[in-house]
Amino acid sequence: MDGTLGNETTMEKGVLPDAPEASVRMSCRNIDVFYGEKQAIYDVSLQIADRSVTALIGPSGCGKSTFLRCLNRMNDTIEGCRVEGEIMMEGKDINSPAIDPVLLRSRVGMVFQKPNPFPKSIYENIAYGPRIHGLAQGREDMDEIVEKSLRRAGLWEEVKDRLNLAGTSLSGGQQQRLCIARAIAVRPEVILMDEPCSALDPIATARIEELIDELRKRYCIIIVTHSMQQAARVSQRTAFFHLGSLVEVGDTDQIFTSPRWSASRKVVRYLS
Amino acid sequence: MSDPAVSPFANERALKRLRRRRAADRRFKWYGRMAIGFALAALALLLASITTQAMSAATYHVVTFNLDLEKETFGGLKPDDPPPVDKVYGLVRADLLAQFPETADNPVLRHDLTELITRLAVLPVSRDIVRNPRSVGTVREVELPLSDDLDLYLKGANARHLTVPIGRVSAEEKDGILTLTAEGAYKRLIAAVSLEGMLAPEALNTGSILMTAGQSTLKVSTLDPSRITGSLLTGNLQDFGTYPVRARLITSPESERTVSDQQIAWLLALKAEGRVSRVPHWSLLTHTDSTQPELAGALAAIMGSLLTLLVTASMAIPVGILASIYLEEFATRNRVTDLIEVNINNLAAVPSIVFGLLGAAVFLGAFGLPRSAPVVGGLVLALLILPVVIIASRTALKAVPQSIRDAALAIGASRMQTVFHHVLPLAAPGMLTGAILGMARALGETAPLLLIGMVAFVAEVPRSPTDEATALPVLIYSWATQAERAWEPMTGAVILILLAFLIAMNGVVVFLRRKFERRW
Which of B411, B418, B424 to probe the A interface (max A CBs under 10 A)? Predict the structure, then answer.
C-alpha cells in the first residue's frame, strides 16, 4: 500500500504519455462510456498521481463527472451505463469481475456535488462506514476514528459538543465537510470529489479548498470543478475535457499558462 | 413599447390584465374551498345519517326477573352439561303467566305473552348457571332483553303512539264492559285525536285507544262526550278508581302492527311495576349473531374480521414489501420487469369479486381449505391488496432521494446495507401507510368473502383462523337484508363499529409515522 507501485504499473508508466513525476495511483487506458446507445466518453487515457490533486475541468456535459464515477464504479448504479477500457489500480483492472465494487468503494471514496449527509446524527454519519467495514474494535476505538476524521475534515472544533445532532441540521459548508469526514473515516486511498463546492458560498468554498490542500498530503484526490480558478488554486495536475474527450492534460501551471490545445486556450483566455 | 423608459406594465390594458389574473386566482381558490366543503358536507351527512340510525340501538329495554333456582331442578349440573335453557325459560314463563292471570285458559294469549321474552334470551343465564353452580339454590335477579318489536314500541319506532293524560275518573263494570266517567276527558281526547288528523269515531276503526291506570289497561270501544266504555285487557277495575288515567292513541290498526294491544297492555303493566328498564346495549359487542335482533351481537364478526386481517397482514405485508424492494432497488429494468409492473397495476384494478371467485376455485377447490374460514378469507384479501401494497411501497421507495443511496454506496455499503440501513428507514412511514391503507380496504371488503362462504350464520366465536367465521362488512350486509325493523339500527351500530376499527387503524398509522419521523 501507501503508494508503492508494483513492477507492472511502473512498466506502463513509461509507455503512457504525460506520466507524472510522482508515483501513479490509478491509470486509465482507452476508456469509453456509453449511456445506452449514446457514447459519453471517447477513448480517455489518464494517469492519476498519488498524494496530489488532479482537477478535471471542462464545459458542462463534457463527461468529466461520468469519468469520475468510473473510478469507483458508481456508474454501475446507473441503468444502461456501460464502461469499456481498463482502469488499473495496484495492477488490477477495477472493472474485472474479480474486483468487488463494494470493496473498491471503500478504497476509493467519493464526495458529491450536493452535500448528502445521512439523516442521522453527526456521530452516526462518520461511524457508519467504519462500522460496516469492521474498522473499529469497540466504542472507544470508534470514538477515536470519529474524532480523527472530523479533525482532518476541519469540523471537530465546530461540532464536538453536539455530535448527537442531526447531520442535516448543519450549514451547507459544514455538511460538505461532514461528507468529506465520512469519506475519510473508512481510510480510503483515493477521494473523488464531484464539484464539491458548487452548492456553497465563497467562504465555505475557501474552507473546503484549504481542506483539500491539507488532505492531499495523505490521499490521492481527483476533483471535478466548473471553476477554473478553483482548479488553478487546488490542483497540481489538470485534465481538460471537451465533448467527451480528454483534450489536454498536464501540470496545472503549464495548462493555465501555456495551453497547447485551442479550446483550452480559449477557456483560459476567457477566464483571465 | 417603442420607448424603453415607459414600463410596459403601466398602461391601462396591463392593469386590466393584472386584475383579470388576480380574479382568476381568487376564483380558483374559491373553487377549491367549495370542493373541500362539498367533501366535508358529504362526510358529515353520511356520519350523521348512520349515527342517527344507530342511536336507538345504543340502548335497549330489559325486563327484570327474580329466578328461583331451586336445588331440585338445577342441582347436580356438571361443567360439560348443555345449558338448561328450557328449565330457565320455564321459570320466566311461569313468572309471566302468574303475573297475568287472564292468560290462564287461553292458549293464544299465553303464546302472545311468552313472545315478550324470546326463549334464547335466557341462554347466557343458563350458561352461567352451568359455569357457576354456586348460584343454584338462590334467588337470582336477571335482566332479560325485551322482544325487539316491543323494544321498538317503547322507543317509539314501532306502532306510533301518543299519550294524553286524562286524570281522575270514576269507573264501573257491567257484564265485562268498563265504563269510565270523567269531566273533560272526551274534550282532551278529541283535541289529541284532531291533532293526529283523525276524527274520534274513525280513530277507533283505524287505530286503538288504550286507557291505562296503574298496572291496568282497557281498550276503548265507544267514545261519548260523558262516558268512555271498553273491555279490560289486563289488571282490575280498582286501579281506574285509584290512579290517574292516561290515554294512549295508536294510530295504526292492530292487524298491521307487529305488537298487539294486549302485548302493549302487558308491557305497560310490567313497566308500571318498574321491571322494565332501558340499559346500554353491550350485548351488541359481547353476543354472537342470532335470529332475534335483541339477542344478536357482532362479537363473532369482530373476531372473524380480526383473524382475517391477521392472515392478510402476515401474508400481504411481507410479500408486498419484499416485492416492492426487489423491483425498486435490485431489479434491472427490462421487458420482464416492465411486464410485471404493468400487470401489478392491472391487478390493482381487478374487481374484488373476481378475487372471490379465484379464492373459491383455488383455495377451496384445489387446495381443499375449509369453507367460511378466516384463513381463506385472509389469503383472498391478501391477494386483493397485494398490488395496492406493492404500488404504495414502491412510491415510498421512489421518494427517497438518490443522493442517500449514492452516499451509502460511495463509502462501500453493499446494496442490501444501503437499502436496509438508509433507504428503508426513510421509506418506512410511506410503506406503512400503504400497508395500512391496504388493510383498511381488506377490512371493508364484502364481495370476495361472500363467495368463499364467510356469509354463514355464525353463533360461535371463532378461536382460530380455521374456524367458521364471518366478517364485519358481511354481517352488515346480512343484517341490512333482514326484513324486521329492529335490524336497521343494529346495522347502523355495526357500521359504526367498523368505522371505529378503521379510525383506530388510521390512528396507528399516524402514531407510527410520528415515531419513525422523529428519527429524522
Answer: B411
Using the predicted structure, report yes or no on whether residue A10 has a pLDDT greater than 80: no
Q: In chain B, whose CA is at the least distance from the CA of A105?
A: B412
* pLDDT(B164) > 90: no
| HSE of B392, CA atoms in CB hemisphere, 13 A | 22
Say if the Cβ atoms of B407 and A166 lie within 8 Å. Answer: no
H or E segment and range at residue A42: strand A38-49
C-alpha cell at B487: 335490524
Q: What is the predicted pLDDT for the residue at B519?
A: 53
Q: How far is CA B408 from CA A95, A196, B413, B519, in A?
A: 20, 17, 5, 18
Measure the CA angle with vertex B276, ends B275 and B282; round to 5°.
Answer: 120
3-state secondary structure of B486: coil
Mean pLDDT of the region A24-37 = 90
How far is residue A246's CA from residue A238's CA, in Å, rounded to a whole number? 11
Question: Residue A136's pLDDT band (boundaries 50, 70, 90)?
Answer: confident
A·B CB contacts under 8 A: 68
pLDDT category at B382 given cuts 50, 70, 90 is: very high
Find chain A residues with C-beta within 8 A of B401's C-beta: 116
CA atoms within 13 A of residue B242's CA, in its CB half-sphere = 8
The 3-state secondary structure of A187-249, one letter per residue: CCCEEEEECCCCCCCHHHHHHHHHHHHHHCCCCEEEEECCCHHHHHHHCCEEEEEECCEEEEE
Residues A191-213 pLDDT 10s: 999 999 988 888 889 989 998 99
d(Cα B127, Cα B85) in Å, to the nearest integer?
8
Q: What is the ipTM of this complex?
A: 0.85
Residue A36 C-alpha cell reads as 445506452
- Extract the C-alpha cell encoding B279: 340499559
Distance CA A192, CA A75 (A): 13
